[in-house]
């Protein structure tokens, strides 16, 4: 692995009202963008030009906006494209095809995102909150507690910057597009519902009003906040829903995913199944495999039984080898035990694929994001 130090931008960060990030183009509706541009004394059609630069050309740099007069682009960019994310550090793994970036936000707090390039797709794992309030004991972010939610623009900026990096050919393999976004970085996306849904809408809006991504290639992962899952179901946006189950029984799950004491295994599975019924989108069940904790054959059978009790073909299982986090008493399951677990699920007819652990050597894999300062 290699660390690439990045020059720090020491200019004083701008602030928005009441501890919010400064106003950013992405956080405005198309109408508000027109209003903002005209209030700055410029013509309304400049709003569309800015959108084209930002969402299509993936740039917020006034120097690149050569179809606008110099004074105009400097004025508009300075006002509407404040730098929300400042790169602090980038770590690479897997021959440069995995890149974890640590970002500093306007108020000095930090989050991470992880870009993974595969042969036929590129996936960005984004953070939706600074820290997380869900307190899952095996997850590094869970140990931090929640500092604050991210704004839509702070999340979209993670995506825009990754897409630009890929388009510019900064990862090995030549220029490419960002195809997938997973809300599996820091935070519980459904606890920051409004900003996350606005982000999803922005990602799937056709260019130049959004990034033109496919909803199917966006995965929202949740601990199982049932009312928010029901709300998501009603949105009728065909994103992929992933449920972090980690245990098929309430006794163990309440220990691993404390919110289970509020919404049980059965309630979370019912909400996940309802999501499938309404959207037709197959749900993913995430299951971090922890040695001698949740990896017993009987738990695989119980999981298979509970999933099949709700129907067939609605769900896909994603066991994740536990990525170790500092101070955690848990370790990954024995590979043979893991294989047996997978075989049992498959014997129940549940499609099952083990999640890769890309980036684990740079603490960039699932559950390892802690955004520590070095
Ligand atoms: N809050 C959301 C998104 C977080 S991370 C959620 O919980 O779903 C995405 C996945 O990584 C979740 O399934 C989470 O449980 C899992 N995870 C957390 N810590 C992990 C670890 N140490 N090893 C492997 N997976 C982990």
In short:
This protein has 374 residues and is α/β, with parallel strands linked by helices. It has helices at residues 30-39, 46-56, 70-80, 152-167, 193-204, 226-235, 250-256, 265-279, 297-308, 335-347, and strands at 2-5, 86-93, 98-104, 110-117, 122-125, 129-131, 146-149, 180-183, 218-222, 240-244, 283-289, 315-321. The strands form 2 sheets. A 10-stranded mixed sheet has the order 1-2-3-4-5-8-9-10-11-12, with helices on one face.
Word description of this protein:
The longest helix is centred in the middle third of the chain and has 16 residues, at 152-167. By secondary structure, the chain is α/β, with parallel strands linked by helices. It has helices at 30-39, 46-56, 70-80, 152-167, 193-204, 226-235, 250-256, 265-279, 297-308, 335-347, and strands spanning 2-5, 86-93, 98-104, 110-117, 122-125, 129-131, 146-149, 180-183, 218-222, 240-244, 283-289, 315-321. Helix 4 runs parallel beside helix 5 (193-204) and helix 9 packs parallel to helix 10 (335-347). It has a 10-stranded mixed beta sheet with strand order 1-2-3-4-5-8-9-10-11-12, with helices on one face. Bound molecules: S-adenosyl-L-homocysteine. S-adenosyl-L-homocysteine is lined by residues 134, 136, 138-139, 184, 188, 221-223, 244, 286, 288, 320, 322-323, 325, 366-367.
Based on secondary structure, the structural category is alpha/beta
| Major sheet | 10 strands, mixed
Query: Averaged pLDDT, please?
Result: 94
Tally the helices. 10
Intertermini distance: 16 Å
Radius of gyration: 21 Å
Shape: elongated
* Percentage of residues in strands: 15-25%
Oligomer: single chain
- Helix content range of the residues, please? 25-40%
């Amino acid at each position: 692995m290699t660390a690439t130090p990045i020059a720090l931008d020491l200019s004083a960060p701008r602030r928005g009202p009441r501890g919010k990030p400064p106003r950013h183009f992405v956080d405005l509706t198309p109408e508000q963008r027109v209003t903002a541009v005209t209030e700055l004394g410029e013509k309304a059609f400049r709003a569309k030009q800015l959108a084209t630069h930002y969402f299509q050309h993936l740039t917020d740099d006034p120097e690149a906006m050569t179809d606008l007069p110099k004074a105009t682009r400097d004025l508009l960019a300075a006002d509407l494209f404040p730098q929300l994310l400042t790169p602090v550090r980038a770590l690479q793994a897997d021959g440069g095809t995995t890149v974890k970036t640590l970002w500093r936000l306007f108020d000095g707090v930090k989050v991470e995102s992880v870009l993974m390039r595969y042969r036929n797709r590129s996936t960005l794992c984004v953070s939706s909150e600074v820290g997380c309030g869900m307190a899952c004991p095996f997850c590094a972010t869970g140990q931090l507690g929640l500092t604050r939610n991210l704004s839509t623009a702070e999340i979209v900026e993670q995506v825009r910057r990754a897409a630009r990096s890929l388009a510019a050919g900064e990862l090995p393999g030549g220029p490419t597009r960002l195809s997938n976004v997973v809300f599996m970085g820091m935070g519980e996306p459904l606890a920051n519902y409004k900003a996350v849904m606005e982000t999803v809408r922005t990602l799937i809006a056709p260019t130049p009003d959004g990034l033109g991504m496919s909803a199917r290639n966006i995965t929202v992962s949740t601990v199982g906040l049932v009312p928010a899952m029901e709300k998501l179901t009603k949105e009728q946006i065909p994103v992929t829903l992933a449920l972090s189950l980690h245990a098929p029984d309430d006794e163990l799950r309440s220990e691993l995913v404390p919110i289970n004491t509020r919404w049980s295994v059965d309630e979370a599975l019912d909400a996940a199944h309802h999501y499938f019924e309404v959207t037709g989108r197959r749900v993913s069940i995430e299951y971090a495999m922890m040695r001698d904790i949740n990896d017993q054959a009987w738990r695989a059978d119980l999981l298979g039984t509970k999933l099949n009790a709700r129907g067939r073909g609605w769900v896909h299982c994603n066991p994740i080898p536990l990525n170790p986090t500092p101070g955690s008493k848990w370790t990954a399951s024995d590979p043979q035990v893991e294989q047996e677990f997978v075989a049992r699920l498959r014997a129940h007819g549940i499609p099952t694929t083990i999640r890769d652990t890309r980036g684990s050597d740079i603490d960039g894999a699932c559950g390892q994001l802690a955004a520590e300062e070095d």
